[in-house]
Amino acid sequence: MERSARLSRAWIAAVAAVAALGLAACGGGGSALPTVPPPAPSLPGVGVVDASADGCVVSYDGMLSYTVPAGAFSPIDIRSANCGAGLDRNPNPPLPAWAIPDGPTQAIFVATSLQQAYSVAGMQSLETAAAASHVPMTWMIDNFAYLQNTALYQSYHADNGDDVEAGDEAQLVAQMRAAFPWYTPSVSVEGGGHERNIAGLTALGETGFWGITWDSRGTDGDYDVGAPWGSYCADPSSYKRPMPDGTCPLLAFEWTARDLTRGYLSGHTEFYSTDPDDLQQRAGFSTGGAIAYIQAVADAYAAAGETQPLVMMSQQESAEDLNPGDEQIMAALYARAVHDGMKTETLAQANTDARAFSAQPRAVAFPFIAGGLYLPSDELNGGTLYPATIDYHDAAVGMTFLAGHTVPTRVFEYASDPLSQYNVPFAPLAAAETPQLTSVAVQNGAITFHFDAPVALRYGVALWSNPAVLRMSGSGVTPAGRAGVVLTFQLQAGANDISFPCPGCSGTTLPYST
Q: CA 226, 227, 230, 233: dihedral to nearest 10 degrees?
């Protein structure tokens, strides 16, 4: 479990106590709310909504609109609506169809265990959970004490295809080479709370590193906000950003997979992750609620992988797997990854296979998954009902979009960050440099966006319609699963008209993907 530098233990305990009261009142399950947002009125400025008595046309920016059906739909942030009846919002909305696997996935699932505190019993617990689903474990040895028990690793390797990795210490790597004839240094263990030793791991012949804490804003002292999640081809001279030229000399892997929506909007990825202790001890889930939640997280990654390859990381310290409920939660995650058709690999295997796609542009839609504590959202002025998000990055820019928004809510221009430090965040694009979208038009099978840009910039927009319905493809078009599509382009300083062919666009009102 990661430590949080932003919240006191007393505050966490107080909020957890409120959640526990709500869970008791609702009979458990980990999905009760400390507070319930009031229904949204059918008026301008309504905010996030997810239900309508009748079909409705809604808009956030007044330039692109979306048709939403009668009944429930994926939460969307809006400012205006044209409805025959009232809008509403449900604190526990159903998952959208686009977040539920519906075909073969290209997602790779990697299970790891950081070996810091010595616990053979914890290792055995975690191996039991992984082996039951035939998921190979990568044991990341960062403690010389673990080399006292080489027979256990040998048997796990023989029985389940398990592997080992080490940190960037030459002596540790040498001892592991001697202990395990099948071990080849591949991915360096570069955990939280200290600077990543890129030069050291490169000198050992390793071509990847593990330990980016996606969107972290102080956890374990790390400020990895702005770095891509999953896997990406890192710039060795500034490891938190992608390699600018699109090559892949160094592959970076995140610490563990996160809820990309609730983690971003709450500012606390250490609550909404695939670490069972994060879920139970921080986010207020019961064991049963955490199991349901982590299965939905895996489903969302598998669904996103239907249109693009990606890596879903999982990490659990073996010494912590003896905590009540942890083994059951991890077993449920491993089983769900296999059920969803993800390819299960060791870190070394992923370091080879993911290199083929980790330099490509990636747009991933992630739903709002209910349950646990509902932390206020800075992005939504304290609102506790989150819409979906799309997270996008390529070699030049990283962007995050909220459901219903055409332009990103934050932008990271990677050329502005020539030096990476573990405790210094990437700075988002300043408001004074942010382009202004002034109009959207659809004509002759094309959609055109007019921007006024203060500076030259790589930028993008999101359309929250199924890409198959819009029938968009080609350069600068990156599908976000079945939820939407991100269009990227280069803006020059001044006025810009940006057009994309859109055979499925009949006007500036699009069908909202539900």
A: 140
Is the residue at 384 inside a domain?
A: no
Counted domains in the chain: 3
The stretch 99-120 carries a mean pLDDT of 94
Please, are residues 196 and 223 in contact by the beta-carbon 8 Å criterion?
no
CATH number at residue 212: 3.20.20.510
Which of 233, 280, 275 lies closest to 256, judged by CA? 275
- Length of the chain equals 514
pTM beyond cutoff 0.90: yes
Residue in 431, 394, 384 with CA at minimum distance from that of residue 409: 431
Distance from first CA to last CA of the chain, Å, rounded? 34
CA atoms of 158 and 476, how far apart (whole Å): 45
For the record, the structure tokens of 400 come out as 């995050």
Is residue 45 helix, strand or coil? coil
Q: Which domain holds residue 72?
A: 47-94
Instruction: Look at residue 448 and tell me if it is in a domain.
Output: yes
Based on the fold, state whether residues 161 and 123 are members of the same structural domain. yes
Task: Give me 16's structure tokens.
Answer: 């957890």
* Cα atoms in the 13 Å half-sphere on the side-chain side of 206: 27
Which tokens sit at 196? Answer: 């990543």
pLDDT in tens, 480-506: 999 999 999 999 999 999 999 999 999
Report yes or no on 270 lying in a domain: yes
Residue 94 φ/ψ, nearest 5 degrees: -70, 160
Tell me the sheet residues that pair with 112. Answer: 138, 315
CB 194 within 8 A of CB 422: yes
Pure H helices in 225-360: 260-266, 276-277, 287-304, 326-339, 347-353
Q: Which of 299, 329, 364 corresponds to the end of one domain?
A: 364
Q: How far apart are CA 261 and CA 269, in angstroms?
A: 9
- Is the same domain home to 90 and 217? no
The answer for residues whose C-beta is within 8 angstroms of residue 102's C-beta and 6 or more apart is 303, 306, 482
Tokens of 404: 């219903």
The secondary structure of the chain in percent helix, strand, coil, rounded to multiples of 5, reads: 25, 30, 45
The answer as to whether 189 is a domain residue is yes
- Do residues 252 and 198 make contact, with C-beta atoms less than 8 angstroms apart? no
Positive or negative torsion for Cα 480, 389, 282, 20: negative
Q: How is residue 263 written in tokens?
A: 């983690």
Sole residue written with tokens 């493809």: 473
Name the 3-class secondary structure at 507.
coil
Return d(Cα 397, Cα 495) in angstroms, integer: 21
> Token digits for 440?
């959207």
Backbone dihedral region for residue 155 (phi beyond 0: left; psi -120 to 50: alpha; all else: beta)? alpha
pLDDT in tens, 374-414: 888 877 777 767 899 999 999 999 999 999 999 999 999 99
Q: Which of 188, 163, 133, 139 is nearest to 318 (CA)?
A: 139
